[in-house]
Amino acid sequence: MLFKLFLAFAKIGAFSFGGGYAVIPLLYRDTVTINGWLTKSQMTDMVAVAQMTPGPIAVNLATFVGYRLDGIQGAAAATLGLITPSVLLALLVAGFFARFQEKYQVKSVLAGIRPVVIALIAAAAVFLVHGAVKDVFGVMLALLVLFLSAFTRLHPIWMIMIAGFLGMIIY
User: Fold this and answer.
1) Phi-psi bin for 19: left (phi > 0), alpha (psi -120 to 50), beta?
2) CA dihedral sign, ordered 9, 13, 14, 17
3) Count of CB atoms within 10 A of residue 116's CB?
4) What is the pLDDT of residues 34-48, one digit of tens each?
5) Any one cellular component term from GO for this entry (predicted)?
6) Secondary structure of the chain in the HEC alphabet?
7) Which of 19, 24, 66, 142 could form a disulfide with 74 if both were Cys (CB 3.0 to 4.6 A apart)?
8) pTM for this entry
9) Exposed / middle / buried, residue 55 (Cβ in 10 Å: 0-12, 13-18, 19+)
């Protein structure tokens, strides 16, 4: 199981460009759809907790999923699997990027990747909406936080605390 976890998360780490939220659709596909390691509800809960936990969401998710599946060893295998491709790629690219960053080809590749990253983040949002917003209150709360995020400087921790408080009252 440990090697399978490592490989699954190494694959996710190798193909998830764009940061933590871009990993969610890939992680969902491997852990829920393909391997059946988690239910959709479990995955949604882990994403919510990973968002509230300090640190990168992708690393938090890998750690939580690995721990759920095989304890401390599973957490280590999944987390190491997730970060190994990035570490190797960073070591390879760091030496060359400064030298070639102004080249047309490099700029073109980056321009092509950006829309894909946006699409993966949107897919993660759709996944989260389907798993977490189950009633009118949930829709209203999601829209309120979206508005606050877009148009105010309110810190996200305050939004999470307010939403948790409202959830205690409503639910």
Assistant:
1) left
2) positive
3) 12
4) 999 999 999 999 999
5) plasma membrane
6) CHHHHHHHHHHHHHHCCCCHHHHHHHHHHHHHHHCCCCCHHHHHHHHHHHHHCCCCHHHHHHHHHHHHHHHHHHHHHHHHHHHHHHHHHHHHHHHHHHHHCCCHHHHHHHHHHHHHHHHHHHHHHHHHHHHHCCCHHHHHHHHHHHHHHHHCCCCHHHHHHHHHHHHHHHC
7) 66
8) 0.60
9) exposed
pLDDT in tens, 106-163: 889 889 999 998 998 888 888 888 877 888 988 888 888 889 999 999 998 999 898 8
Buried b (16+ CB within 10 A) or exposed e, 90-111: eeeeeeeeeeeeeeeeeeeeee
**Residue keyed to tokens 């070639």:** 100
